[in-house]
TrEMBL record:
Pfam families: Autoind_bind, GerE. InterPro entries: Sig_transdc_resp-reg_C-effctor, TF_LuxR_autoind-bd_dom, TF_LuxR_autoind-bd_dom_sf, Tscrpt_reg_LuxR_C, WH-like_DNA-bd_sf. Residues 144-209 form the HTH luxR-type domain. This is LuxR family transcriptional regulator. SMART domains: HTH_LUXR. GO terms for biological process: regulation of DNA-templated transcription. One of its GO terms (molecular function) is DNA binding. The keyword DNA-binding applies. It comes from the Bacteria. Keywords: DNA-binding, Transcription, Transcription regulation.
Length: 213
């Protein structure tokens, strides 16, 4: 089951993304949405029309809600979802898709009236989203890999510097090794942690307490 974490300031929802035969409310795990919005969303089956959910399934890159494409002329349902969300002060948002080895797994989406979505805050939000997802995943279904594939000291070092926002080239300069070697260590760590990218590997290493900040 795919798992999503959707938030709106003090609002959160953990849910599976339903297949064509499932209703949205059947796969909800935890929810804290504005009063009335969840009832409307489920009653109208908005998950099938929501352009945010659609883009989450199609990309691995974080995006602002305004970047989710839909046509008001030809997709009245998508426009309705976004308009009704605005009624609940969910006008602007930021979404981070989280994909696993077997495809789409989750997304982290936040909404508010005045979001700080700068080039400085977005990477931090990305890492926090990954960590939140990994924590949720561990609580719901402990990973069988949590105690296996222990990282080497060099793999831990490269992930620590990655968590600090350093590029492979920067990390290479710090550790006195080549950028290619750094990339190789990160790739090895990703494989051991069953992660599809560096950010997910950092989140899992933090969750399993293999590294610290």
């Amino acid at each position: 089951m795919a798992v999503a974490l959707l938030t709106h300031s003090r609002v959160a929802l953990h849910t599976g993304l339903p297949n064509p035969k499932e209703r949205f409310e059947q796969v909800v795990l935890l929810k804290k949405w504005p009063m009335g919005w969840f009832d409307i969303y489920t009653k109208e089956d908005y998950v099938r029309l929501d352009p945010i959910i659609r883009l989450c399934r199609a990309t691995t890159q974080p995006f602002e809600w305004s970047e989710a494409p839909y046509s008001r002329e030809t997709e009245s349902g998508a426009a309705e979802v976004m308009d009704r969300a605005t009624d609940f002060r969910m006008k602007e948002g930021f979404c981070l898709p989280i994909h696993g080895i077997n495809g789409y797994e989750a997304c982290f989406s936040m909404s508010g009236v005045d979001l700080d979505l700068s080039s400085r805050t977005k990477p931090a939000l990305h890492l926090m989203a990954m960590y939140a997802f990994e924590r949720t995943r561990q609580l719901l279904k402990p990973s069988p890999n949590a105690g296996s594939g222990i990282l080497t000291p060099r793999e831990r070092e490269t992930l620590i510097w990655a968590a600090a926002g350093k590029s492979a080239a920067d990390t290479g300069d710090i550790l006195g090794i080549t950028e290619r070697t750094v990339t190789a260590h990160i790739a090895s760590a990703c494989q051991k942690l069953d992660a599809v990218n560096k950010t997910q590997a950092v989140a899992r290493a933090l969750q399993y307490r293999l590294i610290g900040l």
